[in-house]
Specification:
By secondary structure, the protein is of the alpha+beta class. It has four domains: about 1-170, Lysozyme (Orthogonal Bundle); about 185-350, 3-Layer(aba) Sandwich (Lysozyme-like); about 375-435; about 440-505, SH3 type barrels (Roll), CATH 2.30.30. The protein has 16 helices and 23 strands. The strands form six sheets. A seven-stranded mixed sheet has the order 1-5-4-7-3-9-8, with helices on both faces. A five-stranded antiparallel sheet has the order 15-14-13-10-16, with no helix packed on it. Strands 22-21-20-17-23 form a five-stranded antiparallel sheet, with no helix packed on it. Strand 21 (about 485-495) and strand 22 (about 500) form a beta hairpin. Helix 2 (about 20-35) packs across helix 9 and helix 6 crosses helix 7. The chain is elongated, with a radius of gyration of 30 Å. The N and C termini lie far apart (about 85 Å).
Length: about 500
């Protein structure tokens, strides 16, 4: 039925289906009928004593009267249930066409999608991944008895063949070669085939384990894992190729991101902040440089905010950094790496010979206080929370304890917080003046002069906390104030060394 392929492809894309959507639907139609509009379910050929053509002719002529109720699958989509076959027959007769006419069946198929399967049609029009479209058709339109993972993979594979044949050449340009830095290759079956978007993002991840590339390759080898990455960096700095760079990996809980991003899993500590060894971080820089060069990029950008990043259109010579935590309730790539995303962007861009200047900051900035970090437990005073760091409007949220999960410097609402109990419902970006450090502390930022030579540094605000040594005389920055035993007020040092009694400090 090769002659039908192009006709079906042109029809579906002409109806507004995305290339991935058309391919995903065609993969399912192929699995059902081989794209043969006269196909009679194989098990019924012998049972009814008809070939495909004879059955079609008998229905058309009226010789065979049991088309609606014989339970035999028929046509492109193998329509089987009596009401759908009844509607197909009525549609054909109204059009004056054979029950096996390709164009008529395509029109009927689209009519069904438009009236009874609107959510499937919506997916087919917007899908950027063949697997997404294919699964939607399989689970919500065709609904065969076997809907297992093996069936999903097979049908998506059929669809990918059509995508590669009819859509991929139109993407043109970049061949999306793999990096020459690869030391070990173990290709994972967990991917969606060819990308539907040019590469313009890099997404570093933390593995949560100081593992080798061999171990990492084994992690993503089983189909049951349902996850993968393009590259991995082992604890010794060696590089794994897990999914060809030209294919979409399953790495960030976001089809849209994975279609355009090269994903890199990096060996890390198993506990927060999930630090990388220096050899891993240095190899990450080198690998990012290589990815950028092969994809024609001269600059790597870190915009620091999900909404700003996803609404930014990279220039032809720009690559953008994204993170897993923007698309799922995860800390990935860990606070250690998250804090270094700007450094990574700057170092890669410097090696590429591009300008390290980032896009201009949004207007009306609100700079986060130095004493607040990702993971800090705070008191939310109540007010509004926002869907993005620079959103113009927000919604009301109740006061209560919360935890900082992200920080966007120079944004209107620089802190992303999530409530820690049922007292509050805050879950979004908030203003700097809407939060304070839990435990009666207040965020500040000022300098003091210390002249005493025996002033203790404490691990917390009070004499009940452990001593961490003496502070040398000099000028220091205080980023947090709190009440506590032994002093009228305690101050937290910007260096992170600990707390000192402000009774012995002169504010400057």
């Amino acid at each position: 039925m090769s002659t039908n392929e192009k006709r079906i492809w042109d029809y579906l894309t002409g109806k507004g289906l995305s290339p991935a959507g058309a391919a995903g639907l065609m993969g399912n139609l192929y699995a059902e009928s081989g794209l043969n509009p006269q196909n009679l379910q194989n098990t019924y050929e012998k049972k009814l004593g008809y070939t495909d053509a004879a059955y079609t002719a008998a229905v058309d002529s009226g010789k065979y009267q049991n088309f609606v109720h014989d339970s035999a699958g028929y046509g492109l989509a193998q329509w089987t249930y009596w009401s759908r076959k009844q509607n197909l027959l009525a549609f054909a007769r109204a059009a004056g066409k054979s029950i096996g006419d390709l164009d008529m069946q395509l029109d009927f198929l689209f009519e069904e999608l438009s009236t009874g399967y609107k959510s499937v049609l919506s997916t087919l029009k917007t899908a950027t991944a063949v697997r997404t479209a294919s699964d939607s058709v399989l689970l919500n339109f065709e609904r065969p008895a076997n809907q297992g993972e093996a069936v999903k993979i097979k049908r998506a594979g059929y669809g990918q063949t059509y995508y590669d044949k009819y859509a991929a050449p139109a993407n043109g340009g970049n061949s999306m070669s793999n990096s020459s830095l690869v030391n070990y290759t173990k290709l994972s079956p967990n991917h969606s085939g060819k990308r539907t978007h040019a590469i313009d993002c890099i997404t570093p991840h933390c593995v949560v384990g100081q593992c080798s590339v061999e171990t990492l390759g084994n992690v993503f080898a089983p189909t049951s894992r349902q996850a993968s990455c393009n590259y991995g960096i082992g604890v010794d700095g060696r590089v794994l190729l897990c999914v060809d760079e030209g294919n979409r990996s399953w790495c960030t809980s976001s089809n849209a991101n994975d279609q355009r991003a090269v994903t890199i899993e990096c060996a890390s500590d198993t506990t927060a902040p999930y630090a990388f060894k220096d050899v891993v971080y240095q190899k990450l820089i080198t690998l990012c440089v290589d990815i950028c060069k092969r994809n024609g990029k001269k600059k790597l950008l870190w915009l620091g905010d999900k909404n700003k990043t996803l609404n930014y259109s990279p220039k032809s010579d720009e690559m953008v950094l994204t993170v897993h935590r923007w698309f799922a309730n995860k800390s990935c790539p860990g606070d250690w790496m998250y804090a270094r995303m700007g450094d990574l962007a700057s170092k890669v861009t410097a090696q590429l010979g591009g300008s390290t200047a980032q896009p201009s900051a949004p207007s009306t900035p609100s700079t986060p206080a130095a004493g607040l970090d990702i993971g800090t437990v705070v008191n939310f005073a109540g007010g509004k929370h926002y869907t993005s760091a620079n959103a113009a409007s927000g919604s009301a949220a109740k006061a209560g304890p919360a935890k900082i999960t992200a920080i966007s410097a120079n944004a209107k609402h620089p802190y992303h917080v999530i409530h820690t109990d049922a007292t509050s419902n805050v879950y979004g970006w908030v203003d700097a003046n809407a939060i304070s450090v839990a435990g009666g502390s207040a965020v500040v930022n000022y300098t003091v002069r210390i002249t005493a030579t025996d002033l203790n540094i404490r691990s917390g605000p009070g004499t009940g906390y452990a001593r961490k040594g003496f502070i040398k005389p000099g000028v220091y920055t205080i980023v947090e104030e709190s009440t506590g035993a032994g002093a009228s007020k305690w101050g937290k040092l910007k260096s992170g060394a600990g707390w000192v009694s402000l009774d012995y400090c002169t504010k400057m």
